[in-house]
Specification:
Strand content: 5-15%
Domain HTH hxlR-type: 11-109
Structural class: mainly alpha
Order of helices and strands: HHHEHHEEHH
Shape: globular
Low-confidence stretches: none
CATH architecture of the domain at 23-96: Orthogonal Bundle
Keywords: DNA-binding, Transcription, Transcription regulation
Number of helices: 7
Mean pLDDT: 89
Radius of gyration: 16 Å
Strand order of the largest sheet: 1-3-2
CATH class of the domain at 23-96: Mainly Alpha
CATH superfamily of the domain at 23-96: Winged helix-like DNA-binding domain superfamily/Winged helix DNA-binding domain
Organism: Peptoniphilus asaccharolyticus DSM 20463
Distance between the termini: 43 Å
GO molecular function, one term: DNA binding
Protein name: Transcriptional regulator, HxlR family
Helix content: 40-55%
Largest sheet: 3 strands, antiparallel
CATH topology of the domain at 23-96: Arc Repressor Mutant, subunit A
Length: 120
């Protein structure tokens, strides 16, 4: 009989959630779709994230190969974030999450705070 840990480790859904399920990871990935953004731009887009949490989420996404961090040798320092090919491959999943969330909110009588829909 498999232990609970074995099932989680070998489960594609659990694997996906572990990669994109951090506090702001899905939002970071969504905002980086088709764009390159600097830290300050991401902070403006995800205002509820503390600097410490945003930095932690960016590091984890980079460690997992979903985003690329480009550091330019200039003063003041310039750092840009973009999606890797692996990160870009998550677009259909994120887009489906957006669509599902929009429909659910509509069924609850709520309106999304903004239109963040990306075109394919």
């Amino acid at each position: 009989m498999k232990s609970k840990d074995d099932i989680t480790i070998n489960c594609p859904v659990s694997t996906t959630i572990s990669l994109i399920g951090g506090k702001y990871k899905a939002l970071i990935l969504w905002h980086l779709t088709g764009k390159t953004l600097r830290y300050g731009e991401l902070k403006t887009l995800i205002q509820q994230a503390t600097p410490k949490m945003l930095t932690q989420q960016l590091r984890e996404l980079e460690e997992n190969g979903l985003i690329h961090r480009e550091v330019y040798p200039v003063v003041p320092p310039k750092v840009e974030y973009s999606l890797t090919n692996l990160g870009e491959s998550l677009f259909p999943i994120l887009s489906s999450m957006y669509d599902w969330g929009s429909e659910f909110m509509k069924s609850e009588g709520k309106k999304p705070c903004c239109n963040m829909k990306h075109n394919d």
